[in-house]
From TrEMBL:
Lineage: Bacteria, Pseudomonadati, Pseudomonadota, Alphaproteobacteria, Geminicoccales
Protein name, as recorded: GTPase Der
Compositional bias annotation for Basic and acidic residues: 201-210
Underlying gene: engA
Compositionally biased residues, Acidic residues: 211-220
Keyword Repeat among UniProt keywords: yes
Segments passing through the bilayer: none
């Protein structure tokens, strides 16, 4: 499991964050006498992520400041070396202090990846500190309010990108909840409640699980399971408005070497680049560039930057799966760029599969369109190969571009926003169950062990990408072909093209 160390001078909020992440599941691992406070370690949860967290608070709290060095070298250094990721916390209200710079000096030299977390950023209180934090030379700082929970989704993205585990147990919890709802529905029906009332009761149970920490930032939840379609549509609109205005849409451009990724990045950023950090030199460390495009915020994951970094390590320049995967994990939407001169190749399919496996929304960009002579033949062949190799993401948007000429690049960005909306889509439980009834009437599931299989209840358990739980009388007996029928039906009926749609089957008895 990923281990995260919380590092920073006293009073920046390490313990507060630790407590928020770990809650009561604390295990004290180091109570060596002489250490001012115990080094605390615990299993943390954030949404559906799970990881270990080490709180170094107290390790550097000592009487004699001249001792700081020694103490930091020994204790904090161990925590840093043992960790997979360091969250270097500073106080956004206080700004950068000499003590912060001292830590930064140390952290610039360690091998563990470091993310600067500017705490106490509730409201706009930390804006100054956030701007100053670029000056630490440790890449893009991330705002947070450990005390109030603001920007938790940014933290989620960072941790998720660094490989914190998604907890399957939470999916089970969702299923259990949905099952409880199904039971309530049956009980209500038995008690003679009329249809509408039964439905109302049933819909009160299941909720989005995992991401419920995020209602502060508006993008993930604050959507009621029993909301009607209008409310859901309004929530979707709000999320979209939010993503354009305040929160950046995170896009990664991936593809084989020579597909034209750098050319596209240069074209896009050359036009209207707006960096959030003041010093261009510092952004070299960042793996992403923030960019304002037609009034919408976009964070472009800089795979070219990752490659530059790799080259310093003397690694030969080639498509690295690790690097690509890292970019994919950072992104909401992934643009897979293919070279029209070469068509869809095996390596492209490998990347596409990575994107789908990671649950990201996919847009296919066919670059060097200026070299294509028979457009129709090209597209026919492309669609044929895609439906063959990637049936699980039927309807992937395909945008033909010329990165060199800057042709159609706006359409590519629009397609990213469109697919992001779909990736976030939520369908009400009421509507899903009315739909399921029609689906099973039109094409009844087969018999198994002498009894007809029954699909009793469906509920959406997650978004980003959409995931559904279906309660089935004998889940193991349900043929794959029937599952495909349901998934394709979901995609068509609820307009979910181009994103992975996941379905888990649960026992309803
Ligand atoms: P540590 O020494 O780094 O572990 O810091 P603590 O977690 O003990 O926090 C130091 C002080 O900052 C406490 O008074 C916290 O209540 C406060 N604090 C922590 N996080 C925040 C925050 O997000 N916003 C504000 N305004 N105060 C915070
Ligand atoms: P990367 O390795 O994916 O970053 O690819 P580059 O951006 O370095 O591009 C590889 C080559 O393809 C360069 O020689 C580019 O000039 C060329 N190229 C990029 N985009 C286009 C395009 O739209 N049309 C044509 N004809 N060539 C392009």
């Amino acid at each position: 499991m990923l281990t995260v160390a919380l590092v920073g001078r006293p009073n920046v909020g390490k313990s507060t964050l630790f407590n928020r992440l770990v809650g009561r599941r604390i295990a004290i691992v180091d109570d060596t006498p002489g250490v001012t406070r115990d080094r605390r370690m615990g299993e943390a949860r954030l949404g559906n992520l799970r990881f270990n967290v080490v709180d170094t608070a107290g390790l550097e709290e000592i009487e004699d400041p001249s001792d700081l060095n020694a103490r930091m070298q020994a204790q904090t250094r161990t925590a840093i070396d043992d960790a997979d990721l360091v969250l270097f916390m500073i106080d956004g209200r206080a700004g950068i202090t000499p003590s912060d710079e001292h830590f930064a000096d140390l952290l610039r030299r360690v091998e563990t990846p470091v993310v600067v977390v500017v705490n106490k950023c509730e409201g706009r209180a930390g804006d100054m500190g956030l701007a100053e934090a670029w000056g630490l030379g440790l890449g893009e700082p991330m705002p947070l309010s450990a005390a109030h929970g603001d920007h938790t989704s940014d933290l989620y993205d960072v941790l998720s990108a660094h490989g914190a585990a998604h907890a399957e147990a939470l999916e089970d919890a969702a299923a259990a909840e949905a099952e409880a709802a199904a039971a309530r529905r049956r009980a209500a029906a038995r008690a003679g409640a009329e249809g509408a009332e039964a439905e109302e009761l049933a819909e009160h149970g299941p909720r989005e699980v995992g991401l419920d920490d995020f209602d502060d930032d508006g993008s993930d939840v604050d959507i009621d399971e029993d909301a009607d379609e209008e409310t859901l549509a309004a929530a979707e609109e709000r999320a979209m408005a939010e993503i354009g205005r305040q929160k950046a849409l995170q896009i990664a451009i991936v593809g084989r070497p020579n597909a034209g990724k750098s050319t596209l990045m240069n074209h896009l950023l050359g036009e209207d680049r707006v960096l959030t950090g003041p010093e261009a030199g510092i952004t070299r460390d960042a793996i992403a560039v923030d960019w304002l495009h037609a009034g919408r915020r976009i964070r472009l994951i800089d795979t070219a930057g990752m490659r530059r970094k790799a080259r310093i390590d003397d690694r030969i320049e080639k498509m690295s799966v690790d690097e690509t995967l890292r970019a994919i994990r950072f992104a909401h939407v992934v643009v897979l760029m293919i070279d029209a001169e070469r068509g869809l190749e095996k390596q492209d399919m490998t990347i596409a599969r990575l994107i789908v496996d990671e649950g990201r929304a996919l847009v296919l960009a066919v670059n060097k369109w200026d070299t294509v002579t028979d457009a129709d033949a090209f597209m026919t062949e492309l669609r044929r190969r895609m439906s063959h190799v990637m049936p699980q993401v039927k309807g992937v948007p395909v945008v033909t571009i010329s990165a060199l000429a800057g042709h159609n690049t706006d359409r590519l960005i629009d397609a990213c926003f469109d697919i992001y909306r779909i990736w976030n889509r939520r369908v009400s439980t009421g509507r899903l169950n009315r739909w399921l009834e029609r689906m099973t009437e039109n094409y009844p599931p087969p018999m198994a062990n002498g009894r007809r299989l029954r699909l009793r209840y469906i509920t959406q358990i997650k978004t980003r990408p959409p995931g559904f739980a279906i309660f089935v009388s004998q889940p193991k007996e349900l043929p794959d072909s029937y599952v495909r029928y349901v998934v394709n039906g979901l995609r068509d009926s609820f307009d979910l093209p181009g994103v992975p749609v996941r379905v888990v089957l649960r026992t309803s008895e």
